[in-house]
Design brief:
Elements (H helix, E strand, L loop, with lengths): L13 H4 L7 E6 L4 E6 L1 E2 L9 E6 L5 E6 L20 E4 L4 E4 L3 E2 L2 E2 L10 E5 L2 E5 L13 E5 L4 E4 L4
Parallel strand pairs: 3-7
Antiparallel strand pairs: 1-2, 4-5, 5-6, 6-7, 8-9, 10-11, 11-12, 12-13
Length: 162
């Protein structure tokens, strides 16, 4: 499954991502036949983006999900960057093809959302994503150099480094 990225405006697929706010598609590769299919998604669809991170995980209900965060919502030329997108997590349920957006408030209080960033590293660790590095418009705060996203509820916390 692929979500995001940039292609030149002359590419026939560009019409589907030209308006990034309404590009509610993912591309799925059928491995056996080696055929790609563009599939429409629903729900709280994130803006199409580049230089972001995506990973798969299995939720507590055993449903497979695809989680994305960060990156840039602008069209980018190769080797360029733009204004970073939110680090708010988005999760796509593989079975329903419905997106869910992480909350920013819970019971009247604001939840932690890291500084904007793109070109960062991340890896899956169980039902968590470890996120490190990257850059934004401003320097990444030192206490946000290593983050943990709970991929099930899409809530962030700062990692404690010993």
């Amino acid at each position: 499954m692929v979500f995001g990225g940039d292609i030149p405006p002359r590419d026939p697929e560009f019409i589907f991502i030209g308006d990034r706010a309404y590009a509610n598609y993912v591309y799925i590769l059928e491995v056996d036949s080696q055929r790609w299919e563009r599939v429409q998604t629903q729900g709280q669809v994130p803006h199409w983006r580049s230089l972001h991170f995506g990973a798969t995980f299995s939720s507590l209900t055993t449903a497979e999900h695809f989680v994305i965060m960060g990156g840039c919502e602008e069209h980018l030329e190769i080797f360029h960057g733009g204004r970073p997108a939110t680090m708010r997590g988005y999760s796509l349920n593989f079975s329903t093809l419905r997106w869910k957006r992480g909350a920013t408030r819970r019971k009247g209080s604001e939840l932690f959302v890291p500084a904007l960033r793109m070109r960062f590293g991340a890896q899956r660790y169980g039902r968590h994503l470890l996120v490190y590095g990257g850059h934004g418009i401003e320097a990444i705060p030192e206490d946000e150099e290593l983050l943990v996203l709970n991929a099930t509820d899409l809530e962030w916390r700062k990692a404690e480094v010993a």
